[in-house]
UniProtKB/TrEMBL annotation:
It comes from Sphaerisporangium album. One of its GO terms (molecular function) is transcription cis-regulatory region binding. Residues 42-61 bind DNA. PANTHER family: HTH-TYPE TRANSCRIPTIONAL REGULATOR RUTR, MYCOFACTOCIN BIOSYNTHESIS TRANSCRIPTIONAL REGULATOR MFTR-RELATED. The keyword DNA-binding applies. InterPro entries: Homeodomain-like_sf, HTH-type_TetR-like_transc_reg, HTH_TetR, MftR_C. This is TetR family transcriptional regulator. The keyword Kinase does not apply. Keywords: DNA-binding, Transcription, Transcription regulation. Residues 19-79 form the HTH tetR-type domain. Residues 1-21 are annotated as: Disordered. Pfam families: TetR_C_14, TetR_N.
């Protein structure tokens, strides 16, 4: 299956620096969680390992749960989605936007993301927070799809579109975990979006 084209447009320096700091904190947090366990690891230990102050930690992550749950990807996907050519369908625009974000960020960060998602799925409180986050992601996608199409964010079809994409995203992530990262998340996400675009045929 061919990948959607990458426009090559870089993200801003400020966004890159913020994402790099966030990634550094998360990498050290995930290492400490693996070594000591999630419950035994403190915010002070994470900040010290990442060579930032606790106050800097809290600028990026309000709680220890958030160091596992939060990322910058939804806003980056929204930005990339809105700048796709108007001639593209919403689904193809989402597909290309996700390809851009995966190419820019996930290539550097995929193993850390995998460890984060595995931890989230193993701890009920984190998994619950992740579901809340996907609901917020669906609201974001609804809003930007309404903006892109000139329709209302209350439009049922706009909301169904956003729900279908987010549902497909969740399934792709679950399959990624099942495969223990053997297939890149970008490839799985592209596969499920292509399936949506084909009308989800389910012939025997």
């Amino acid at each position: 299956m061919s990948s959607p084209p990458h426009t090559g447009q870089p993200f801003g320096l400020r966004e890159r620096k913020k994402a790099r700091t966030r990634r550094t904190i998360q990498e050290h947090a995930m290492r400490l969680f693996a070594e000591q366990g999630y419950d035994a690891t403190t915010i002070e230990q994470i900040a010290e390992a990442a060579e930032v102050s606790p106050s800097t930690f809290f600028r990026y992550f309000p709680t220890k749960e958030d160091v596992v749950i939060q990322d910058d990807y939804d806003p980056m996907i929204a930005e990339a989605y809105l700048r796709q050519p108007a001639s593209l369908s919403p689904l193809e625009a989402v597909r290309r936007a996700m390809s851009e974000v995966f190419a820019e960020i996930f290539a550097e960060d995929e193993q850390t993301i995998l460890r984060r998602i595995q931890l989230i799925w193993s701890i009920p409180a984190l998994r619950s927070r992740q579901v809340e986050g996907r609901m917020a992601g669906m609201a974001m996608l609804t809003a930007v799809t309404a903006e892109r199409t000139g329709r209302s964010a209350d439009d049922l079809e706009v909301r169904v579109f956003a729900g279908a994409v987010v549902g497909a995203w969740i399934v792709a992530v679950e399959r990624w975990i099942e495969l223990e990262g053997a297939t890149p998340l970008a490839a799985l996400m592209d596969e499920v979006l292509v399936f949506l675009g084909r009308g989800m045929p389910l012939q025997p």
